[in-house]
Specification:
This protein is mainly α. The chain has 3 helices and no strands.
Length: 109
């Protein structure tokens, strides 16, 4: 008996001499599809869980602030945000800063 698997294309070789086995390119595509689908579902669930976690933490902090357990210094928050987002160092947030931030974000994408 001669092994004719050497004359078959790479996507039909399966280790046995039968060419009608279930391995090959179609099953590789199927496995890739299932793997991609499962990872997408997992990432969607993880994203949803993270959104619920951060949203719940924000609501809880707002509740504590409303009840007087914590005090937020909004002027300090505003100053910190302006310092970090002011791209042209003119001391205010304006359209020029937005354009610079937009262009910076496009470079990193």
């Amino acid at each position: 008996m001669s092994d004719d698997s050497d004359s078959l294309p790479f996507f039909t070789k399966s280790g046995s001499s039968k060419s009608n086995s279930s391995s090959g390119l179609p099953s590789q595509i199927g496995i890739g599809f299932v793997g991609g689908f499962c990872s997408a579902v997992a990432l969607k669930s993880a994203g949803r869980a993270a959104a619920v976690l951060f949203g719940g933490a924000f609501i809880f902090l707002q509740y504590l602030s409303y009840k007087g357990y914590i005090q937020v210094d909004w002027q300090k928050v505003e100053k910190s945000m302006i310092t970090s987002l002011d791209q042209n160092a003119d001391g205010k947030l304006d359209k020029k800063d937005a354009v610079l931030l937009w262009n910076l974000s496009l470079i990193h994408i």
